């Protein structure tokens, strides 16, 4: 990974990051009637090229494919049906990436396209492949441009918004910082459109936003995200040890320089292993194991492996090595882990002590090394 020089910036954790993921939203790049706004896209490229010229590495997560395809297809407004959205993405993705390629080429920078669906990161082998691809592109001096593969993604395998995708990519790429850009200056303690509101400068722990109402994700205009999705993504990255700035696209240069713009989410934990991060944030559980109170205590407080004796029920049709949720008697999710048995093997094991089981079934149902505790981010 390329290193960055020492800095005296107000936010040295951002300015000093040798590898940074930058996410830009559709509203910053496109307009409903006119498709791509080349002038605004070029302005962002100029900023990122300057970051590259300073010796830092950049991964760009860019929305805008669907919006870029609307005008050429003569479609007014964001499509409501999946097939039309996929058609618009098919047309718009070409235009979007070609425009990026031309703009970066003026700075002597080659770009590479990385299209992902949620399925590519929820499957552990695909997650590792994504890491290797991004790492190799960067080692070759290429600037990766990542987007959700809207041309094939179905509702069941969508990320839902590129903010969450950017948080996952920040871990996949082993980035030192994440910058989420949109048309909003940062996180406010109220809605600045309806009354007085103060910009939140720094978030060091989830409690800092306990009294802040963020609303829900928006699907107005050309984008699908909202401040709630940005904060959720910021917490995912921050809990994984990656500091985040949420700000507007015109402030991108200041944000990347470590100047005090937007809202900083400081790193809230050590960077987890790829397996731990994948289990908690990227895996798709294939079933559930219902635990009794004793097993919940053993897993949560003693970080013990899950044994058959503490399981009272199962749900789902999972296979051995699939990710599953570990759920307490009250229905609350306690942990996620990789189960050692197929669902069809489990009924005969429930509630039985290890010594009473046949030798082939005496291993842990979920080993502690294959488990991660799950709690609310906010």
TrEMBL record:
InterPro entries: AceGlu_kinase-like_sf (IPR036393), Asp/Glu/Uridylate_kinase (IPR001048), G5K_ProB (IPR041739), Glu/AcGlu_kinase (IPR001057), Glu_5kinase (IPR011529), Glu_5kinase/COase_Synthase (IPR005715), Glutamate_5-kinase_CS (IPR019797), PUA (IPR002478). Residues 287-367 form the PUA domain. Its EC number is 2.7.2.11. ATP binds at residues 23, 182-183, 224-230. It is found in: Cytoplasm. CDD domains: AAK_G5K_ProB (cd04242), PUA_G5K (cd21157). Substrate binds at residues 63, 150, 162. Pathway: Amino-acid biosynthesis; L-proline biosynthesis; L-glutamate 5-semialdehyde from L-glutamate: step 1/2. PROSITE patterns: GLUTAMATE_5_KINASE, PUA. One of its GO terms (biological process) is L-proline biosynthetic process. Keywords: Amino-acid biosynthesis, ATP-binding, Cytoplasm, Kinase, Nucleotide-binding, Proline biosynthesis, Transferase. Its main location: cytoplasm. One of its GO terms (cellular component) is cytosol. It is an enzyme of class 2 (transferase). Belongs to the glutamate 5-kinase family. Catalyzes the transfer of a phosphate group to glutamate to form L-glutamate 5-phosphate. This is Glutamate 5-kinase. It comes from Blastococcus saxobsidens (strain DD2).
């Amino acid at each position: 990974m390329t290193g960055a020089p020492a800095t005296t910036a107000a936010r040295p954790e951002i300015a000093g990051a040798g590898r940074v993921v930058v996410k830009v939203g559709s509203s910053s790049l496109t307009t409903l009637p006119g498709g791509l706004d080349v002038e605004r896209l070029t302005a962002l490229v100029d900023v990122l090229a300057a970051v590259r010229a300073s010796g830092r590495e950049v991964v760009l997560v860019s929305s805008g494919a669907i919006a870029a395809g609307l005008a050429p297809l003569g479609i007014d407004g964001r499509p409501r049906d999946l097939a039309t959205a996929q058609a618009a993405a098919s047309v718009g993705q070409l235009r979007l990436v070609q425009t990026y390629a031309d703009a970066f080429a003026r700075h002597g920078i080659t770009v590479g396209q990385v299209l992902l669906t949620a399925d590519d990161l929820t499957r552990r082998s695909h997650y590792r492949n994504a890491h290797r691809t991004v790492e190799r592109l960067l080692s070759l001096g290429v600037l990766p441009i990542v987007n959700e593969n809207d041309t094939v993604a179905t509702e069941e395998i969508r990320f839902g918004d590129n903010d969450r995708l950017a948080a996952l990519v920040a871990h996949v790429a082993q980035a030192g910082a994440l910058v989420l850009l949109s048309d909003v200056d940062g996180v406010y303690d109220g809605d600045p459109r309806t009354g007085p509101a103060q910009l939140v400068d720094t978030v060091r722990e989830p409690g800092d936003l306990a009294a802040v109402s963020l609303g829900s994700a928006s699907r107005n205009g050309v984008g699908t995200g909202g401040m709630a999705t940005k904060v959720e993504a910021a917490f995912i990255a921050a809990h994984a040890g990656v500091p985040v700035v949420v700000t507007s696209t015109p402030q991108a240069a200041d944000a990347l320089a470590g100047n005090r713009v937007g809202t900083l989410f400081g790193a809230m934990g050590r960077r987890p292993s790829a397996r731990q991060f994948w289990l908690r944030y990227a895996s798709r559980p294939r079933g559930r194991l219902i635990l009794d109170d004793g097993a919940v205590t053993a897993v949560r407080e003693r970080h013990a492996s899950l044994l058959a004796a503490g399981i009272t029920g199962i749900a789902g049709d999972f296979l051995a090595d699939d990710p599953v949720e570990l759920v307490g008697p009250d229905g609350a999710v306690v942990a996620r882990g990789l189960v050692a048995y197929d669902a069809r093997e489990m009924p005969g094991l429930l509630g039985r002590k290890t010594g009473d089981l046949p030798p082939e079934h005496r291993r842990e149902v979920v080993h502690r090394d294959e488990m991660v505790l799950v709690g609310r981010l906010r």
